[in-house]
């Protein structure tokens, strides 16, 4: 059982940023990845729809033998993690949440910006995080419609992507923001572009590495850490598999076959 794979899923390719952190921290673990790119982005979908997709994908990954699930998507975590934990009470399930606590601790100016999808920013979970950790700082939220689609296409440095980003970060900088939360797992892939656009004193915070550490803790507690060696990562997509296959070398660092997600 301990050498069974870990199942990871996202609305699209963004969760590959989390998958990479898991691979770096836990190289002995075999990994399964589902990109629900046929329904990307989740940010403009209803909570009921996201929940139904999450349950269907979880069932598929469990059918592939997954010993644990990682929701590598802030929007899916907010919408579906409670239902998933109710449906599978014995299964280790790790979710995402925007890094409000470390951002509040890091800011010098007291102004924190959040780049995220509309779905994440509207969620009760995000509101609760703000209430809990951001009472002493000013948090400015910025929805980023269209950015996920640019990243899905692999357009990480395209002029259109740069123009979108600049339009969103400029007002945050004008308000004195010195700490920027990347509140979507797609967004770490545009860190190099953000670094070009932002002053050197602005910190970028995401939670992929923290999720990998939490996965290690939970697997260790349940004596489920793999002894290795890891099997090659397996990939599925609910859109055309070729689209994910084309961006894997860019976003995952290696080519791999992508299978069509059944159903």
Q: Write the CATH architecture name of the largest domain.
A: 3-Layer(aba) Sandwich
Average residue-wise pLDDT: 95
For this structure, the CATH topology of the largest domain is Rossmann fold
Helix content: 40-55%
| Percent range for β-strand residues | 15-25%
Distance between the termini: 27 Å
The DSSP helix count reads: 11
Unreliable segments (pLDDT under 50, ≥5 consecutive)?
none
**CATH level 1 name of the largest domain:** Alpha Beta
Radius of gyration equals 18 Å
Q: Which structural category do the helix and sheet elements fall into?
A: alpha/beta
Topology pattern, helix = H, strand = E: EHEHEHEHEHHEHHEHEHEHE
Number of strands: 10
List the domain count as a whole number: 2
Tell me the strand order in the biggest sheet.
4-3-1-2-9-10
Which sheet architecture does the biggest sheet show?
A: 6 strands, parallel
Global morphology: globular
């Amino acid at each position: 059982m301990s050498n069974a794979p870990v199942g990871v899923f996202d609305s699209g390719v963004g969760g590959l940023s989390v998958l990479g952190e898991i691979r770096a921290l836990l190289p002995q673990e075999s990994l399964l990845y589902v990109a629900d790119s046929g329904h990307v982005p989740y940010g403009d979908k209803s909570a009921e729809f996201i929940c139904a997709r999450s349950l269907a994908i979880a069932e598929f990954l469990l059918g592939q033998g997954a010993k644990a699930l990682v929701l590598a998507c802030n929007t899916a975590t907010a919408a579906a993690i409670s239902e998933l934990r109710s449906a599978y009470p014995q299964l280790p399930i790790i979710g995402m949440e925007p890094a409000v606590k470390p951002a509040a601790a890091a800011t010098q100016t007291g102004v924190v910006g959040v780049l995220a999808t509309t779905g994440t920013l509207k969620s009760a979970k995000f509101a609760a995080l703000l209430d809990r950790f951001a009472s002493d700082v000013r948090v400015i939220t910025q929805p980023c419609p269209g950015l996920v689609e640019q990243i899905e296409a692999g357009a990480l440095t395209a002029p259109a992507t740069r123009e979108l980003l600049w339009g969103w970060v400029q007002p945050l900088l004008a308000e004195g923001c010195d700490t920027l939360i990347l509140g979507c797992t797609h967004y770490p892939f545009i860190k190099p572009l953000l670094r070009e656009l932002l002053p050197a004193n602005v910190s970028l915070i995401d939670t992929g590495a923290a999720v990998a550490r939490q996965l290690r803790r939970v697997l260790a507690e349940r004596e489920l850490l793999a002894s290795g060696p890891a099997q090659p990562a397996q990939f599925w997509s609910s859109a055309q598999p070729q689209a994910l296959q084309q961006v894997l070398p860019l976003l995952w660092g290696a080519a791999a076959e992508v299978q069509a997600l059944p159903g």
